[in-house]
Amino acid sequence: MDSIEAKVVLVGSQDVGKTSLVVRYVNNDFSEKVSSTVGASFFKHKINAGKHTIKLQIWDTAGEERFHSMLPMYYRGASAALLVYDVTNPKSLDDALDWINELRDNCSEHLILCLVANKMDLVEEGCDAIEEGRRLAQENDALFHQTSAKTGSGISETFVDIAKELIGLT
Ligand code: GDP
Ligand code: MG
């Protein structure tokens, strides 16, 4: 049994659902009112993939995304990034390009990037916000996933996909 440890960082504009996604994934819980203090932390989660156990250390922001710039320690040693946008908020998808540049400036060139279209419970499958996101992901060699932290859809698939990529790195 191989065991891998990996740091995963969450980035994206404020209110896109970063904290909600990680709370849903790790605690299987959701709240309409997410306390901002919840974000001042990181979460640990083990994921089994074949003969591998991957110990994820998932870093959530403490509100620094308001300034569109994270502390260097936030990115240090990160193997993967979840770049989240809100499918009901076009500005958050525009912002995603800035986040990609921020990641390129601060992270390893081997960073696994996954663009996440969140709040899927609020839109129709195949809407513009999704197709534009899919295109942005393709242009930037990123994985693409559609999620809802409210219903839980797509979230474990997202982390499993990242885990597969992490195994591919070793
Ligand atoms: P963050 O600032 O990116 O960490 O975003 P939060 O996790 O604090 O979420 C912002 C707001 O969006 C909260 O009111 C959440 O309840 C709500 N939210 C987050 N994810 C979803 C989702 O998938 N669907 C819906 N309908 N609301 C969501
Ligand atoms: Mg948050």
UniProtKB/TrEMBL annotation:
The keyword Glycosyltransferase does not apply. Pfam families: Ras. One of its GO terms (molecular function) is GTP binding. Keywords: Nucleotide-binding. The keyword Oxidoreductase does not apply. This is Small GTP-binding protein. It comes from Salpingoeca rosetta (strain ATCC 50818 / BSB-021).
